[in-house]
């Protein structure tokens, strides 16, 4: 039986690469914002007992989202960087859940994540008792470039994976790892990188190709296609 766990949904960014004045998490696709789609997927997992949504301190748009009134959801203010927002979410959970409990961190900009994939991540992590992430094997040939812009080598794609979210770890261990990385001034692009630097093992749990991160305007149309397909298939 999978354990009850918590989740953090950082949504305090401004999404500068998307352009425009609207923060990325509030862009609409398939009838809802990216934030709503991502939150809905987490709420569909019965194993998740509480979700902390981390918003920008000056956010005035969240009040209009009915999903945020779900009893499992609470909102807190985030920070300047993603890791600051995740830490704010962990701070909020620290007084509500044991340090040894599990917490998932999901990107608000990944609206197409499938609830069954989240459930599989929870099961795999709880069975092995090793933190893990959803990820996808890379199928393209990958080149490494030198400073001159020329190819320096071809990497072995059989050992390369594209990291996704959610990423699931022990609450206390993740809290400590992210704090240490920030104090050392290390760049943390995802929770797994902080855990790796702290010496913890991280398992890879196969996700779905549709769990894309909306980063540039062209991604919105693709996300809309996946969301429509998920709805047709019953997600």
Describe the 3D structure.
The chain has helices spanning 34-43, 82-94, 115-128, 171-183, 191-197, 218-232, and strands spanning 5-11, 28-29, 32-33, 48-55, 73-77, 102-105, 132-137, 142-145, 151-155, 161-170, 203-206. The model has no long low-confidence stretch (mean pLDDT 93). The strands form three sheets. The protein has a seven-stranded mixed beta sheet with strand order 5-4-1-6-10-7-11, with helices on both faces. A two-stranded antiparallel ribbon has the order 2-3. The longest helix is centred in the last third of the chain and has 15 residues, at 218-232. The protein is of the alpha/beta class. The chain contains six helices and eleven strands. The protein has a domain at 5-111 and 168-200 and 214-232: Alpha-Beta Complex (Spore Coat Polysaccharide Biosynthesis Protein SpsA, Chain A). Helix 2 packs across helix 4 and helix 4 (171-183) packs across helix 5.
